[in-house]
């Protein structure tokens, strides 16, 4: 059987041992953890203290940082005083739905006559539109408040102003060249880049607006905690950067969620199996609560989530949480089916070449566009290139989602293609678009042009960002608990990724739906150190079974609870052949590496992800190509004979 591993690029910062030791002395943390902080740009004792105790820092006055905040408060205060109906136009993702619920709760409590609308994902797509504006006008609405959308809605805002409505835009998406003529615009992308509010998601802007309005009306103390819970849920579920005020407020909010005041959050925590405060971490929200909310926006009715998060009826809260659970299971099934279909289509295609084009665009019929963004993320993880994925609508148009790699800006790519799209939007890492089907080929060509301007061939492998090397014998519960000081972890402050060199795989087997479970050990590297065995899980890595016997691994630390006992476990995100164990040679014009994976198994690999595995004394070897079925080859025939001969010679010289 052939042995293969993911083709990845590892990015490992050079450790600053001196500065890590200094910060360790100042903070009382281990140098391993302070090196992680250095990697996050926290390099001085002052910065370390501020990071570890963000509440100690003085915040900028939001009324100064957001010039349109005061006019927004004036409009809303007058509307409440005059009983002028206010309408919220939200969005159908977790950020948009939590933002809508947050402002509904706040404005109702403050005495407003308020209602909401969310555009249909299936029929209308993202953002406020002219139909919604005209419906609001017909209902007697005087003030429109967008959340998590609106910064690109030039025509709908113009229509609202024509009809005599006041409109406040609260959004956080990238700012296009032409912005709407709204009465007020609150968007962190419009304020100074050094502001602590710069990284807020849509729910952050909604939270700030609601809190400032409540403060003006003398009711901030009554609302602060419940609104902070919704801010925390939405910020993490939207994958917003956990820096600036996001880190400060999420850190506070996490302590509130386990004993939530909001019946809908209580029900969601119960349904998702999170029963106590120690489980309420960003990871739990991101993987357990967020998907159940997002699933509704993708393939269900957003009203389900809004009702769950605003009701004061326990029965309704539990019923809506159960609906979230059911829809999330449907979403998981759809994602699996479409991912398999997309991978199969790409790997059978003779026309699509992600490496050559430096971008992958796949469009097929019958895919549910509500989940194709998740599928795009999985394809990025698999192929290491930006992915644009779409499906055909009933009107014949194509509607799609995009996900990116660090070196490629999705929003700029869509702007580069704007004459080909009907509508598009997003930010650096993700976006959405629609286009006429006849423009598909031109769009593929244009995206490839942009990708060639943005990317080099070395960028086209899945990236593994590694923090610091750790010897397995140094891993214990104390180190795991120290990681808590880095929380809340998320975007721009991710969970630390450790790596260990040349670990030995003692056992390995497939589990569940194509996951890989390893037992690994690292021989003691220091006198007196004990070799420790660890269980390591590699999610969705079944195709890489079996792994080589010796590997370098990159991983996050996790805990596993079984029969009342808690143990540490490694969540593997990266694997490579041990750098000191493989030797390089050149044959023809190509570079190769070779190593003895075991006493009888030779492995030869090249930079195209091709791996030849050959057991001693056997004529037939196995050629594995990345994401392709392995093939038996006769190594006595060219070109394999010369390749094996050169590898054996290289190993003899190396020994």
Folded structure, characterized:
The chain is α/β, with parallel strands linked by helices. The chain folds into 4 domains: 163 residues, inorganic pyrophosphatase (n-terminal core) (Alpha-Beta Complex), CATH 3.90.1640.30; 115 residues, Diaminopimelate Epimerase, Chain A, domain 1, CATH 3.10.310; 111 residues, Beta Barrel (OB fold (Dihydrolipoamide Acetyltransferase, E2P)), CATH 2.40.50; 72 residues, Arylsulfatase, C-terminal domain (2-Layer Sandwich), CATH 3.30.1120. Helices cover 39% and strands 22% of the residues. The protein has 21 helices and 24 strands. Strands 19-20-21-22-23-24 form a 6-stranded antiparallel sheet, covered by helices on one side. A 5-stranded parallel sheet has the order 3-2-4-5-6, sandwiched between helices. A 5-stranded mixed sheet has the order 7-8-9-11-10. Helix 8 links the parallel strand 4 and strand 5. About 1% of the residues have low confidence.
């Amino acid at each position: 059987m052939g042995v293969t591993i993911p083709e990845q690029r590892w990015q490992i910062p050079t450790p600053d041992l001196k500065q890590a030791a200094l910060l360790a002395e100042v903070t009382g943390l281990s140098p391993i953890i302070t090196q992680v902080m250095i990697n996050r740009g926290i390099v001085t004792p002052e910065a370390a203290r501020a990071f570890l105790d963000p509440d100690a820092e003085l915040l900028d006055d939001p009324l100064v940082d957001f010039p349109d905040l005061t006019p927004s408060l004036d409009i809303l205060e007058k509307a409440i005083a005059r009983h002028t109906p206010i309408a919220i136009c939200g969005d159908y993702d977790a950020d948009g739905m939590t933002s809508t619920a947050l402002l509904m709760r706040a404005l109702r409590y403050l005495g407003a006559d308020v209602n909401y609308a969310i555009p249909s994902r299936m029929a209308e797509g993202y953002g406020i539109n002219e139909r919604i504006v005209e419906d609001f006008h017909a209902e007697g609405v005087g003030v429109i408040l967008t959340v998590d959308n609106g910064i690109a809605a030039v025509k709908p805002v113009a229509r609202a102003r024509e009809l005599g409505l006041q409109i406040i835009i609260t959004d956080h998406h990238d700012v296009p060249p032409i912005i709407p003529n709204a009465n007020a615009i609150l968007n962190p992308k419009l304020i100074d880049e050094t502001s602590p509010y710069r990284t807020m998601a849509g729910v952050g802007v909604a939270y700030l607006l609601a809190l400032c309005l409540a403060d003006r009306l003398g009711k901030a103390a009554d609302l602060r905690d419940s609104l902070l819970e919704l801010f925390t849920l939405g910020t993490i579920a939207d994958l917003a950067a956990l820096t600036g005020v996001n880190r400060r407020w999420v850190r506070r909010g996490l302590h509130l969620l386990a004993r939530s005041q909001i019946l809908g959050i209580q029900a969601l925590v119960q349904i998702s199996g999170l029963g106590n405060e120690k489980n309420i971490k960003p990871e739990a929200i991101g993987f357990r609560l967020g998907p159940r909310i997002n699933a509704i926006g993708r393939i269900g009715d957003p009203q389900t989530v809004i009702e769950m998060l605003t009701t004061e009826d326990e029965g309704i809260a539990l019923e809506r949480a159960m609906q979230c659970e059911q829809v999330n299971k449907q979403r998981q099934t759809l994602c699996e089916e479409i991912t398999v279909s997309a991978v199969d289509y790409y790997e059978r295609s003779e026309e699509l070449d992600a490496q050559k084009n430096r971008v992958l665009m796949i469009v097929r019929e019958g895919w549910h566009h509500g989940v194709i963004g998740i599928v795009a993320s999985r394809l990025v993880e698999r192929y290491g290139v930006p992915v644009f994925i779409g499906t055909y609508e009933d009107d014949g148009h194509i509607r799609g989602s995009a996900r990116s790699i660090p070196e490629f800006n999705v929003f700029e790519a869509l702007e580069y293609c704007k004459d080909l799209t009907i509508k598009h939007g997003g930010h650096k890492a993700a976006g959405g678009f629609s286009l006429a089907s006849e423009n598909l080929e031109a769009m593929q060509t244009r995206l490839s042009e942009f990708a060639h301007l943005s990317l080099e061939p070395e960028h086209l492998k899945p990236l593994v960002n590694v923090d610091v090397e750790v010897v397995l014998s140094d891993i214990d519960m104390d180190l795991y608990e120290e990681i808590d000081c880095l929380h809340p972890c998320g975007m721009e402050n991710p969970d630390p990724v450790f790596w260990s060199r040349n670990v030995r795989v003692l056992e390995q087997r497939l589990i569940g739906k194509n996951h890989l479970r390893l037992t690994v050990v690292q021989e003691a590297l220091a006198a007196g150190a004990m070799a420790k065995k660890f269980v390591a899980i590699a999610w969705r890595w079944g195709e890489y079974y079996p792994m080589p016997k010796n590997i370098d691994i990159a991983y996050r630390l996790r805990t596993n609870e079984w029969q009342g006992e808690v143990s540490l476990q490694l969540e593997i995100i990266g694997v490579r052949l041990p750098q000191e164990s493989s030797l390089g040679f050149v044959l023809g014009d190509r570079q190769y590496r070779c190593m003895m994976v075991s006493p009888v198994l030779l492995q030869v690999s090249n930079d195209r992800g091709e791996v030849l595995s050959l057991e001693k004394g056997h004529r037939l070897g196995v050629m594995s190509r990345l994401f392709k079925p392995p093939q038996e080859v006769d190594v006595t025939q060219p070109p394999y004979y010369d390749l094996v001969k050169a590898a054996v010679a290289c190993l003899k010289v190396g020994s």
